[in-house]
TrEMBL record:
Keywords: DNA-binding, Transcription, Transcription regulation
Alphabetical list of InterPro entries matching this protein: HTH_LacI, LacI/GalR-like_sensor, Lambda_DNA-bd_dom_sf, Peripla_BP_I
Superkingdom of source: Bacteria
Xref: Pfam families: LacI, Peripla_BP_3
Domain HTH lacI-type, residue spans: 6-60
PROSITE patterns on file: HTH_LACI_2 (PS50932)
Keyword Transcription set for record: yes
PANTHER family: LACI-RELATED TRANSCRIPTIONAL REPRESSOR, LACTOSE OPERON REPRESSOR
Molecular function via GO: DNA-binding transcription factor activity; transcription cis-regulatory region binding
Record's protein name: Transcriptional regulator, LacI family
């Protein structure tokens, strides 16, 4: 029978190793040198140490939980992220704790407090400050999701700038449009900042002067409606195309344009980014960029779980996932071959 009075700290002291090393040996996880393993096993055998469930959890700093830090939960984008994250966390028997900062001034403190209750954290890019992100990475494994952080913190993102460059070039070159506006705020959002940069790059490559500034709005459908009201108030200055930072804005802009009696794409082109489910269902369906939202979060969860299972290992490499340009009728392209024939 095991000796319940012997603690993991005493075994660590007797073996001359850390508590974490005793935990790795007793649980069979992580990397331990043969010499350390032998010393730990001898101490365990000699003193009859048998760790209980709680002791193992405390020694390994395992809570059986992972954290997700979002600025908010509005819209289908965050729902997809949660489902992707859970697709890896649940099979690993880890619960998911979600913290929505809502851009509060104490966001940094909230996230650092969360680190006491979870084994690792995925943080949406731009949600907390860089100093807080670095401090968080000292406490638990951290992955920046949908953005990039410091070089020492791994991230999982998509090729935002090249994807937006391709979409914008399609409008400038293939359709010959000239008056394009970008709707979305790059401030505080790595994703939107990269998409704005891709929008500008396409103008430079095409020799077209871009707008000096984006139309800064939030990322939800009502914000797209408000943007449309602003853009189409004066027909003499209305744009040829509205390039939106995400599909939510684009759907709102579509509603706003149609509500003012405009035809899409005959009078104005509207495009999005994400390929949310509604993008293919509206009339006209949205030309957009499909990003693998669930895969983004699943990859982040996998990186965190790997780091938790092998503490002290090298930091994983950052991952950039590819996107797909999806052409539909809102940009003026015919998505189906023309019907024709001899008739009867």
């Amino acid at each position: 029978m095991g000796n319940s009075r012997v603690t993991v700290r005493e075994i660590a002291r007797l073996a001359g190793v850390s508590v974490a090393t005793v935990s790795r040996v007793s649980n069979g996880t992580g990397q331990v040198s043969e010499e350390m393993r032998r010393r730990v096993l001898e101490a365990i055998e000699k003193h009859g140490y048998r760790p209980d469930h709680l002791g193992r959890a405390l020694a390994a700093r395992r809570h059986g939980a992972l954290g997700l830090v979002f600025p908010g939960l509005s819209g289908p984008y965050f729902t997809e992220l949660i489902q992707g994250f859970e697709s890896e966390a649940v099979p690993a028997r880890a619960s998911v704790h979600i913290l929505c900062t809502h851009l509060r001034e104490d966001s940094d403190d909230q996230v650092l407090e969360m680190a006491r209750r979870v084994d690792g954290v995925a943080v949406i890019g731009g949600t907390i400050s860089e100093p807080a992100l670095l401090r968080l990475a000292e406490l638990v494994p951290v992955v920046v999701l949908a953005g990039r952080g410091p070089e020492t913190v791994p991230s999982v993102s998509v090729d935002n700038a090249p994807a937006m460059t391709r979409l914008t070039r399609h409008l400038l070159v293939d359709h010959g449009l000239r008056r394009l506006v970008f709707v979305g705020s790059p401030d505080g959002s790595p994703d939107v900042s990269e998409r704005w940069a891709g929008f500008l790059a396409a103008h430079r490559e095409s020799g077209v002067t871009p707008p000096a500034e984006p139309v800064r709005v939030a990322m939800q459908q009502p914000d797209g409606v408000l943007a449309a009201e602003q853009l189409f108030r004066d027909p003499t200055t209305a744009p040829d195309a509205v390039v939106c930072a995400n599909d939510e804005i684009a759907l709102g802009a579509l509603v706003g344009a149609l509500g003012r009696g405009l035809r899409v794409p005959e009078d104005v082109v509207i495009t999005g980014f994400d390929d949310a489910p509604m993008a293919a269902l509206v009339t006209p369906p949205l030309t957009t960029v499909r990003q693998p939202v669930r895969d983004l979060a699943a990859e982040a969860a996998r990186l965190i779980l790997s780091a938790v299972d092998a503490p002290g290992g090298p930091a994983p490499d950052s991952i950039v996932l590819p996107t797909e340009f999806v052409v539909r009728r809102s940009c003026g392209c015919a998505t189906e071959p023309p019907t024709g024939g001899t008739g009867k």
